[in-house]
Write a structure and sequence with these properties.
Blueprint lengths: L2 E2 L1 H20 L2 H17 L5 H10 L9 E2 L2 H22 L3 H21 L3 H16 L1
Antiparallel strand pairs: 1-2
Length: about 140
């Protein structure tokens, strides 16, 4: 079942704010929270993640009915990619090296910002590219 395309963009906006705060403060706690959110999104789908729940309960009821839908698989894959980068950032912030924390968190922030500001989901595009490559390999 396809999902409301506004949900992942809302989640990306919240993610952008959380990752920016984590990067500015170098807070492993904020980054750990975002890593957990990515884990929920990757395991259960974006609609069941904490930001998906927030969108569904607090934001969507105040919006017009959705007109644009998308399959849930690409955003779910994007959450898994975010999980990898946030996890690397968390390792860098807690165990070192510090540049790893800054770089991985910065890359996750850039991807979340692209999605929230421009609707361009890097992880979704990666999913589609990998899918095309898999079909060609068959």
């Amino acid at each position: 079942m396809d999902i409301d395309a506004r949900g992942p963009r809302f989640a990306a906006a919240v993610t952008t704010a959380v990752l920016a705060a984590a990067l500015i403060t170098r807070s492993p706690w904020l980054l750990a929270w975002q890593t957990l959110v990515f884990a929920f999104g990757a395991a259960a789908g974006v609609g069941r993640s904490p930001y998906g729940w927030l969108f569904r309960t607090a934001v969507r009821p105040r919006l017009a009915p959705p007109t644009e839908f998308e399959p849930p698989e690409p955003p779910r894959f994007a959450q898994a990619v975010g999980l990898v980068f946030a996890g690397l950032g968390l390792v860098g912030f807690t165990l070192g090296p510090g540049w790893l924390g800054l770089t991985a968190t910065g890359l996750a922030l850039a991807a979340a910002f692209l999605n929230s500001a421009f609707g361009y989901c890097l992880g979704c595009e990666m999913f589609l590219l990998l899918r095309r490559l898999a079909v060609r390999a068959e």
